Amino acid sequence: MAGGAAKYRHLSRKSSHRQALLRNLVTSLFTHESITTTWAKAKEAQRLAEKLITLGKKNTEASRKSALATFYTPHSILPKLFGPLRERYANRPGGYTRVLRVEPKKDDQAESAILELVDGPKDMRFALTARTIARQRAQGFDTLNEITALNVRKVTRFRDGGVEALEDEVQKLKLGGHGEKTASNNGEGKGFGWKGRKEKAKKAPLA
Question: What percent of the chain has pLDDT over 70?
Fold first, then answer.
């Protein structure tokens, strides 16, 4: 509609340049699973990435053609999109990507952000939640606070073997020196009530 509000960010580029930029960003995202860019670019690339994962879940000839036309290196990314990523997000109804604000990376102080695929090896919220649990255990706390319990639910809800994977990550941090006080403060195997908190974490409301 003429004169209507824009439904997307133009990114100070003409249409062809904007599309080329977004194609480049999502190609990098699906290759590395995490990229750092400006906040505006991350939000627009997120929209395209979500659509591409939806195409991967459909796994039809039409969806493959659409994805083929989007990526700059489709022959290396399509097997991943229609293989591991399709399986990873099979039970997730949406929200396949996450945008996290970070400190400005450029001299112009433009808002920066990390765009990542969730439930993957570079899931930052998963890593930060594991680090928080390891730190709280080291400090001798025997319960999860409300925010940590909510984050536990978010990072484990749709991840295959999520609770076990998070506990494994916490144990790695413990071995790395982040949780040395756990055994002395809580006793071997006691932790801070991790197993007893599983159900409560699952019931916590989503933000």
Answer: 81
In this structure, what token pair is assigned to residue 173?
């941090």
Report the pLDDT value the prediction gives residue 104, as an integer from 0 to 100. Answer: 83
3-state SS track over the chain: CCCCCCCCCCCCCCHHHHHHHHHHHHHHHHHHCEEEEEHHHHHHHHHHHHHHHHHHHHCCHHHHHHHHHHCCCHHHHHHHHCCHHHHHCCCCCCCCEEEEEECCCCCCCCCEEEEEECCCCCCHHHHHHHHHHHHHHHCCCCCCCHHHHHHHHHHHCCCCCHHHHHHHHHHHHHHHHHCCCHHHHHCCCCCCCCHHHHHHHHHCCCC
Prediction pTM value = 0.77
- 205 torsion bin: left (phi>0), alpha (psi -120 to 50), beta (else): beta
**Beta-bridge mates of residue 92:** none
At 4-60, the pLDDT tens digits run: 555 777 777 888 999 999 999 999 999 999 999 999 999 999 999 999 999 999 999
Provide the token pair at 158.
């749709």
d(CA 116, CA 46): 9
How many CB atoms within 10 Å of residue 66? Answer: 14
Strand partners, 99: 115
